[in-house]
Amino acid sequence: MHDIVRDVTISIASRDPHRFLIRCDAEKKGWPKIYDHYTTISLIPINIDEIPVGLECPKLELLHLEGERYSENSMDIICKGMKELKVLALVDVCGISALPSSLGVLKGLRTLSLNGCRYLTDISDVIGRLENLEILSFRKCSRILELPKEIGLLKHLRLLDITDCDRLEKIPHGLLSSLSSLEELYMENSFRKWEQSATESEDKRMASLVEVMSLSNHLKVLVIEIPDFNFFPKDFYLTSRATIRFHISNRIHGELFGGQSSTGCYAFENKLEIFRSDATEFMEIQIVRVLFKKCEDLILGRIKNLKYVLNELDQEGLQHLKVLRIQDCPEIEYLVNGASWTQQTAFPLIQSIELAGCPS
Q1: φ, ψ for residue 72 (rounded to 5)?
Q2: Burial of 144 from C-beta contacts in 10 A (0-12 / 13-18 / 19+)
Q3: Boundaries of each Disease resistance R13L4/SHOC-2-like LRR domain copy (predicted)?
């Protein structure tokens, strides 16, 4: 039944002036015979290296391909015959090791997604020439070792996703702070080697959290992993009115309640995961105090110098908190010290509390 619904939907869409071609069995049917009138093409899965020579799609604005077989010649055909492309998504394409120079002819490209291209290693040659790019995603490109400095040339970039680039070792200093339009930054299970110095200086080689927080006036979503919450600049002020969504963690993978913790998608609740830390130290950081006030999902593990969770973390009562998980914090005596609590209602939105390894 669902095949019938899909075919009817595609048939209706094909009558629209904005012509769509969507095939979920493209490997059997291959490339379309007539394609010069389409504005959107999605082929799953498809042998990309079988793309017709001389292909011309002058009206095509969105191309989405999923398939393993790929050659640089096929990418040259795509770029030369689809110069009006605004969105290019190549998903789980194993043959791509470097971005071809022909990609630079797509001057109007707004979105480039190479999710799951696990053999991709070199993205430096052409990326800086895509000057109108707004969305750039390398999710699960696990062989990328370094973000090229050319990404810093993308002044219109609004979203950068390097989730699950788990071998990423280097982000050059100054790259992130150059992204003056960036609104969403996703770096879960990715880069962790942040520069530790609290101040900016010319001799820095690696990206720092000072750079990230310099984007806070326009940054709306921040998903990062850090070695220690003390890497946040202590003298940086984040207003409590900031609308940023966040998932920030210093957790080592496998450390939490069986090891599962992930945003999973672009929609998530504000989340903090703090492990192996001293409460008296991270509570001195203004940014951390503001994040506690906005936090909806809080995970604490092996925290020192923390007796009364609510009294010491947020005097306003963690008004947005929905989920609280605490693991291996033997110094904790109470969630709330009722004898001294005279503030507003504590945990008004709480849905779940989980404690493990807290004998007191």
Answers
A1: -65, -30
A2: buried
A3: 43-215
pLDDT along the chain (360 residues), means of 10: 48 60 73 80 82 85 85 83 94 87 94 94 91 97 95 97 96 96 96 78 79 91 95 80 88 65 70 96 93 96 92 88 95 81 81 88
Reported pTM: 0.90
Beta partners for residue 65, in sequence order: 43, 90
SS3 state at 93: coil
Distance of CA 139 to the CA centre of its chain: 8
Whole-angstrom CA distances from 53 to 73, 86, 93, 195, 241 are 9, 22, 20, 48, 55
> Contact at 8 Å (CB) between 337 and 360?
no
The whole-angstrom separation of Cα 311 and Cα 272 is: 18
